[in-house]
Design brief:
The protein is α+β, with helices and mostly antiparallel strands. The chain is built from 28 helices and 18 strands. It folds into five domains: 155 residues, no CATH class; 49 residues, no CATH class; 122 residues, no CATH class; 232 residues, Hypothetical protein af1432 (Orthogonal Bundle), CATH 1.10.3210; 120 residues, Isoleucyl-tRNA Synthetase, Domain 1 (Orthogonal Bundle), CATH 1.10.730.10. Strands 1, 2, 3, 7, 8, 9 and 10 form a seven-stranded mixed β-sheet that branches. The longest helix has 27 residues.
Length: 744
């Protein structure tokens, strides 16, 4: 079967774009082929710092002929319908159509469309130019004289050549005949920019890969990564050192070189006084180099590994020396930052945070820290932390944002704060909280377990959520610029994985209440600002502004909180949605979470999880399944009869009437009273398994009731009481969950 080889050679492709671009190329070409009826055996795309390549194997030489029957409108239909049919079928007149007879509906027009199979080469020539011209680069450019023309080619960097061949492996393939902005497809490419710059011809994919290797280009990025990793490990081992592996850096470096050569450089041991994380960040960010550890130790070695794109005649000595000079300069800067930062206490940096705006509608970092500290102090006793330590940690948690080191390397925020706090004699739990309050950053990140860290981490995330919710900056679709989904998941994991009992609603309210005066004052300041902001105007209107502040404060205190955070689709519902995601990943059913959250006051996330677990276990038993079936039968009957009667059967049944009825009726009434009381007491004691056991005792009387008792009795009073019995069943199950939300 014939294969397609496609290569697009350009000046450069940034490393961060290569994987996505290769996948886009594969998908665009194969989707276009499949859409036209051309199936294939396999396709794989590749990327290097200069080229995108695609190999599609097992294409047919020619597409299959297509015969399609398309039914049109009824004979005698309006002209507009007939013309639409002709246009869609590609016919010029009804003479080209036939008619068919439907025994029930009459005669209809029928078009028989026959399309001969097309040569695959022609189809490729048709689809490839459009794919190249509309390629979805995140950033692209025009170049040369043609760039002045509208519609000229845009590419990530200037496109230099195109290779496009199609044919069987055993024969000489043909060139796909197309061109893009004067660049004609052919069989000529180039190898390594410096080691093999001369053009050479390629025909088939296997020959192409081998020819590139002879020209010092390794096409497969995963193979380049493997070479770099193994050579780095071997070189480190030969020097008695261990490689500090870094998957992200490995991916990036593999996208920077076509012919990787690993070299080792060194730096002065005096720089090891700098924290290891700062050394690693410096060398990684600025030079894209790997750091090394002393063998069998966590201590860094004064050496690093770099990946060159050259086989140098001097064995890489000049390249290594150049990198060492830059690393030395960068580490000198880092050492200066480290020494400078140590000289200033974290407390002394706090005033500077009052001048840094966190968000234009949410005030400064200083204002935010004050709220976080107050909330952390309140949370502390609930999580077993010392309130004073939690408050101290929260006040210092953001202080390292204004240090020299974090200013240069933002990824070190928190970590450097912990280092400085430890050096300045702060309690260990305070120092740890400064680093850990950002955690967990993602679903696989570690969750803090120290109580002070938990208190500050919860306060920080809750403040973020409340603030952005209050100014209506909520996530929409796939967009979440302020990482609010991550913050909510962080709160959930902190609470559940540390088995903490907290009412999230209370914490949200307390954080929001801290903002009331601030929000009102900002509204007043906006009024003053719009009127010119002069002192005379302020004096004239000061009483009105004070009144506005008082009114806004009172309003924000209760009504706005309910409106913003507790109604459907608001912040507590957002927590429910995030909890569903978390529990679904743990194997729980989303409908059970809905069933529990549907009950009022479900903002203790740990109890929600325990209730969901108990409910899931109960519904996995025969008693649970049968009770759910009985509930749904009762709910259906109630829904139908309530609609028919125009009233709700939501009162308690008449016990005396039930007692005088059929034995099954009396047994169900007694069982419902006992089960509801027992389930309610168990829920109050947070014994959810006990509550489920209480409900399980309803199975037999419910089954017997439906088997022996006619709900819609002729006697209206008896019928009403039996419907009220079904409502009592509905009410009893609501002690543990809203069974109407449960599927099945």
């Amino acid at each position: 079967m014939p294969d397609l080889l496609l290569e697009l050679l350009s000046e450069e492709i940034p490393a961060r774009m290569q994987r996505r671009a290769a996948e886009d190329l594969r998908k665009l070409v194969t989707d276009a082929l499949v859409e036209r009826g051309f199936l294939y055996e396999g396709a794989k795309a590749f990327a290097t710092p200069r080229r995108l390549a695609l190999h599609v194997a097992g294409l047919p030489a020619r597409g299959e002929a297509v015969r399609e029957e398309r039914r049109g409108p009824r004979v005698g239909a309006p002209d507009a319908a007939v013309q639409g049919f002709l246009k869609g079928a590609g016919l010029t007149s009804l003479d080209q159509a036939t008619t068919i007879t439907d025994p029930k509906k009459g005669e209809f027009y029928l078009a028989v469309i026959e399309r001969p199979g097309r040569e695959t080469l022609d189809v490729l020539a048709e689809i490839l130019p459009g794919i190249v011209k509309s390629f979805p680069w995140p950033k692209s450019m025009r170049w040369g004289a043609a760039s002045a023309q509208p519609g000229s080619l845009r590419w990530v960097r200037p496109l230099q050549s195109i290779v496009a061949t199609f044919g069987p492996e055993t024969e000489n393939p043909e060139v796909v005949p197309f061109s893009v902005d004067g660049i004609a497809a052919g069989t000529t490419t180039r190898g390594h920019r410096f080691l093999a710059p001369e053009p050479f011809e390629v025909r088939r994919f296997d020959d192409y890969v081998q020819a590139l290797e002879r020209a010092h280009v390794i096409l497969d990025a995963d193979r380049r990564k493997d070479i770099i990793l193994h050579d780095a490990r071997d070189l480190a081992f030969a020097r008695g050192l261990d490689l500090v592996e870094d998957d992200g850096l490995l991916e990036e470096v593999a996208g920077l070189v076509e012919w990787p050569v690993v070299l080792m450089g060194s730096f002065d041991e005096r720089f090891l006084e700098i924290p290891a994380e700062a050394i690693r960040a410096t060398i990684r960010a600025n030079q894209k180099c790997f750091v090394l550890r002393k063998s069998g130790s966590d201590e860094l070695a004064p050496a690093f590994l770099l990946v060159s794109n050259l086989v140098a005649s001097d064995g890489g000595a000049a390249i290594t020396a150049g990198n060492e000079r830059v690393v030395r300069a960068r580490l000198s800067d880092a050492k200066f930052f480290w020494e400078t930062d140590k000289a200033t206490k974290l407390e002394d940096r706090l005033p500077k945070l009052d001048t840094i705006v966190f968000h234009e509608k949410l005030g400064t970092q200083g204002e935010r820290i004050a709220r976080i500290a107050a909330l952390a102090k309140e949370i502390a006793p609930l999580v077993g932390a010392e309130p004073a330590l939690a408050e101290q940690a929260a006040k210092l948690a953001k202080a390292d944002l204004v240090t020299e080191m974090v200013g240069e390397f933002p990824e070190l925020q928190g970590l450097m704060g912990r280092k400085y706090a430890s050096l300045q004699g702060k309690p260990e739990s305070v120092a740890a909280a400064i680093e850990e309050h950002y955690k967990p950053v993602g679903p696989s990140d570690r969750v803090p377990t120290d109580p002070v860290s938990i208190a500050v981490a919860l306060a920080d995330k809750l403040d973020t959520l409340v603030g952005f919710w209050a100014i209506d900056e909520k996530p929409t679709g796939s967009k979440d610029p302020f990482a609010l989904r991550r913050a909510a998941l962080g709160v959930i994991r902190l609470i559940i994985e540390n088995s903490i009992k907290l009412r999230v609603g209370d914490l949200l309210w307390n954080n929001y209440a801290q903002r009331s005066d601030d929000l009102a004052e900002r509204q007043a300041a906006e009024i003053l600002g719009r009127s010119g902001g002069n002192a005379a105007h302020f004096i004239d209107n000061i009483n009105a502004i004070k009144d506005r502040i008082e009114v806004a404060t009172a309003r924000n205190s209760v009504d706005d909180f309910v409106r913003i955070f507790t109604s459907e689709g608001k912040l507590l519902s957002f927590f429910a949605d995030r909890l569903k995601v978390y529990l679904r990943d743990q194997g729980a059913r989303h409908d059970l979470i809905d069933a529990v959250f549907a009950l009022p006051g479900q903002d203790d996330l740990l109890l929600v999880v325990r209730r969901v677990e108990a409910l899931g276990a109960f519904l996995g038993t025969d008693d649970g399944k049968n009770l759910l079936a009985g509930y749904k039968r009762a709910a259906n009957i109630l829904r139908i009869e309530e609609k028919k009667d125009g009233r709700a059967y939501d009162a308690a049944p008449d016990a005396a009437r039930a007692a005088s009825g059929q034995p099954e009726e009396r047994a169900l009434a007694e069982a419902l009273d006992a089960a509801r009381a027992e389930a309610s007491a168990a829920v109050a004691a947070e014994d959810f398994s006990g509550a489920m056991r209480a409900l399980s005792r309803l199975r037999a009387p419910v089954d017997a009731f439906f088997e022996k008792v006619t709900v819609n009795a002729d006697d209206p009073a008896l019928r009403e009481n039996r419907l009220l019995l079904l409502n009592a069943l509905r009410a009893a199950t609501r002690e543990v969950a809203d069974f109407s939300r449960i599927e099945g």
